[in-house]
Amino acid sequence: MTDDTETTRNHDVPVSAVAAWRRGERTRLREARQALGVDARRTIGQAITGHLRALLERRFNGAKGRIFSAYWPIKGEPDLRPLMTDLHGLGVMIALPIVETKAAPLVFRRWTPDTKMVRGDWNIPVPPPEADQVIPDITLAPLLGWDVRGFRLGYGGGYFDRTLADLDPRPTTIGIGFQAAHLTTIHPQPHDIPLDIILTEAGVQTKRISP
């Protein structure tokens, strides 16, 4: 990390102070999400699924002919697996992100409802190594917190930022999170890459492209 005299972009806040603030916010937001009951999380997930279906229809013709990267939910994240299955049934190629190498960009492996999953990083189920590796056109990015400029507060590993910086062309990236996780700012640092769209159970919250 840099010393206390370095500040985040657009905010006169020392980087060391931001790092501590982010740790605290991650804990707070994760605990608040876990405190929601199963029914409440299911309701939120269903609402996000509806908004995402509509967005994909408006912006991407339902994602037909596209490679769509989703995620396997952990730690109370919105569960969009039914949508993955539905899109697969419509002929959309579905992928999941994989931590193949620590502190490196993610890779994406193809997924189908028949894929025999294996345990990956953080014990998350992932497609096996023999699954086809693909490059997504659209990727979902689960988040703990978000701001209206499109910046995402994740778990702190930096994997999505590395991945977006590495991919060319860059996929359209849609952040998925809870409305209650809105933050005034995440105090973006130089490595933070804003997402194209933030989507919550209340709908599209911010967009850098026209959906």
UniProtKB/TrEMBL annotation:
Q: What SUPFAM superfamilies has UniProt attached to this entry?
A: NagB/RpiA/CoA transferase-like (SSF100950)
**Record-linked PANTHER family:** 5-FORMYLTETRAHYDROFOLATE CYCLO-LIGASE, ATPASE INHIBITOR/5-FORMYLTETRAHYDROFOLATE CYCLO-LIGASE
Q: Where does the record locate the signal sequence feature? A: none
Which protein family is it in? Answer: Belongs to the 5-formyltetrahydrofolate cyclo-ligase family.
Protein transport keyword on record: no
Might you give the EC number(s) for this enzyme?
Answer: 6.3.3.2
Tell me what this protein is called.
5-formyltetrahydrofolate cyclo-ligase
Its taxonomic placement starts with: Bacteria, Pseudomonadati, Pseudomonadota, Alphaproteobacteria, Rhodobacterales
The entry's keywords: ATP-binding, Ligase, Magnesium, Metal-binding, Nucleotide-binding
Q: Which GO terms describe its biological process?
A: folic acid-containing compound biosynthetic process; tetrahydrofolate interconversion
A single GO molecular-function term is: metal ion binding
- The first-level EC class reads ligase
Q: Does the keyword DNA repair apply?
A: no
Q: Which cofactor does it need?
A: Mg(2+)
User: What chemistry does it catalyse, as a reaction equation?
Assistant: (6S)-5-formyl-5,6,7,8-tetrahydrofolate + ATP = (6R)-5,10-methenyltetrahydrofolate + ADP + phosphate
Record-linked InterPro entries = FTHF_cligase, FTHF_cligase-like_sf, NagB/RpiA_transferase-like
Task: Detail which positions bind substrate.
Answer: 77
